[in-house]
Design brief:
This is Transcriptional regulator, IclR family. With 269 residues, the chain is an alpha+beta fold. The chain has nine helices and eight strands. The strands form two sheets. It has a six-stranded antiparallel sheet. The two termini are 44 Å apart.
């Protein structure tokens, strides 16, 4: 249901005068206003609704058209441009993988004894978007929305192993995160060695890098193009994580990730 024009206008008044990035906030307000309005808006409508200086509004609208954030109709009113659809498609693909994760493990019980997590890569961190906790206590609780440094997590290592070297360098150009435990990888050079081993195995291992006494094994979930869009991991206690147990779980989690990927349209190996 469309929000009334006045409600979006009120949001414009909430922008503090000391805001260090007013152009960005105003851009988002304009996008919200155009998308929420039940009737097409022209430049004067937008300027008046958000109480913007005319020169500021026209400057923003021109740039937003150049970037395809907005498109101008023949009568001078605005509609959303094609560029936001790229973001929407990315968001929807993440939601697709989450739906597949939930549906798959609602039926498949082969990994029922393990805590299972699904993450996406967001800069140098992973964000947990899916979780199925087992009855086995791990001493660590995974939560939806949790963020952890990607170099220490099984899913993060798997997703990082997919990145080109230059992109990996850029990701940690400012600083490398402090290890969470004494087992955490301590430098980008050391991480590269782990990522090389991950590629060779086809699955990743976090051996006590998130929490002492917990081992996680991860694999990549791919979309129809073969791009790794999420990481799937299973967690177990270190006391149970023999070399053979890790190898068997690694193969299982890799096969499971491939099954999820096939449901997302990926037919490669």
């Amino acid at each position: 249901m469309s929000r009334p024009l006045s409600a979006v206008a009120d949001a414009g008044e909430a922008v503090p005068s000391t805001d260090s990035v007013p152009a960005l906030r105003r851009t988002v307000l304009i996008l919200d206003l155009v998308s929420a309005s039940s009737t097409p808006l022209n430049a004067a409508d937008i300027t008046r609704a958000l109480k913007l200086p005319k020169s500021t509004a026209h400057g923003l609208l021109n740039v937003m058209q150049e970037l395809n954030l907005l498109a101008r109709n023949p009568d001078g009113t605005f509609r959303l441009g094609p560029h936001p659809m790229r973001w929407a498609n990315s968001f929807l693909s993440e939601m697709d993988v989450l739906s597949v994760f939930r549906e798959y493990f609602a039926k498949d019980t082969a990994l029922a004894s393990y805590t299972l997590t699904l993450t996406i890569l967001d800069g140098p961190e992973v964000v947990y978007i899916g979780c199925r906790n087992s009855d086995q206590p791990l001493g660590h609780t995974f939560r939806i929305g949790m963020r952890l440094p990607s170099p220490f997590t099984a899913t993060g290592k798997m997703l990082l192993s997919e990145l080109p070297d230059a992109e990996l360098d850029l990701l940690f150009a400012d600083r490398f995160p402090e290890p969470m435990t004494q087992h955490g990888v301590a430098s980008l050079a050391a991480l590269r060695e782990e990522l090389s081993a991950t590629k060779n195995r086809g699955y990743s291992i976090d051996d006590g890098q998130i929490r002492e006494g917990m081992v996680c094994v991860g694999a990549a979930v791919r979309d129809h193009s073969g791009k790794a869009i999420a990481g799937l991991a299973a967690s177990l206690l270190h006391s149970e994580a023999t070399d053979q147990a890790i190898a068997t779980l690694g193969e299982n989690i890799r096969d499971t990730a491939q099954n999820l990927s096939r449901q997302l349209g990926h037919h490669g190996v």
